[in-house]
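For the sake of transparency, this paper describes our internal protein records without simplification. The record that follows is passed on verbatim for readers who wish to inspect the format:
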Amino acid sequence: MASEKTLNAKNLAGLGAERLAALVLELSVGDAAMKRRLRLELASRSGGADVAAEIRKRLVTIAKARSFVDWRKIKALALDLETQRIAITTYVAPAAPAEAFDLLWRILAMAPSIHERCDDGNGTISNVIAIARADLGAIGERAGLASSALADRVFEGVVANDYGQFDGLIAMLAKPLGRDGLELLKAKFEKLAAQPPARSKNAERRMIGHGLNGPLYEDDFAVHHHTRMVQSALTEIADALGDVDGYAVLFSAQERSNPAIAARIAERMLAVGRADDAMAALALAAPDFRKGGHWPAWQRVWIDTLDAVGRGEDAQAERWATFERTLNAEYLRAHIKRLPDFDDEEAETRALAHVSQSADFHQALAFLINWPAHDLAANLVMARQGELDGNCYELLTSGAEVLELRHPLPATLMLRAMIDYSLIHSRTKRYGHAARHLKTCEHLAKRIEDFGDRRDHAAYVAHLRTLHRRKTAFWST
């Protein structure tokens, strides 16, 4: 049984309301954040309207502030914003969702002025804004706003999205916008597309930097930003309307030859059962895909499309070829899943043999550990120890943990690779990890009967001391 002195709700309630009130007032002296929270709690007793008034007043104060907020004060500002957000969703939204929507919108609209005067390198403020944006989407459906008014507001938000505070707004509010609201929004962005920023005269152009192709001018940047913003908005609207052709037509012929864009178009065609159109969209980008480069989406959608048009054997051949080229386990699993009984085991054996012979040692090791094929992973380490890169510490640390129970020697070799790398390159920040790895090696050595032509643990430690005796930071860890 908990002591009566234990700090918990039951024991504190036993002090009585008057005593607790006196204590709270005493503790709030000099604590502005606590006082604001108490005022919100008091306002909540008479309903959401009073709370909304308190929140609105506080948001106006925050918006008017101009002083710089450094890293030491950023948490206090984030807590203030979070307190207002919680009050909106807890007290205002249940009774007045339209009012709650407006208050959350104000928080998002304040984001640029807040970011401009803050040191938010850790994303503290951005996290609060992101949560407020999610709340806005959840409340939007209940707010009952007229589609035309909501379309106006969404348009304003997307255009003013300089800090990402309104990212994903169209998709988030597509349902409350409805088809009518989305069509109104579409018309607004189509009108905006026809009104790009004017370019300056040569003598008036302002250079803002240098790129690979030469000077970067402010007016060029403005035009490019305008084009990207409008296109992004119109593609989101097309998706929300389920307008596949409307989505595709937003891209130029040159853009459609890009494998990534072709994959996006084809994926939408597949979703509405237009496999032949998906195939045609992908074919436009096939030449660029075959030139090389990393185009995983095109390859994935191409295979799905082959299946959709009834070319299952070709799809299987593509899955296998992609696996052989990339060692992507998902393609191998998909290939094996579609094989007849008994053929799957033969295919897996052939695949693992291919992985073991891969020129990319670390990719092969990661594959075998994750598949899992731990015996083959251990064999790979033993056969190709010289290829271990001690800088691949994430793979080698997790891999050693996986192998150490049944394969202590390969696990030891992986740990030694990281120890050697840390010491040879004087990575002092890793010395603590290296020292722990050395302790693990000592433990594993008790289960290794034969080190073969490799140094046993005592000899390995002696070797380290000879080479790195002056690195006292490691030896004293």
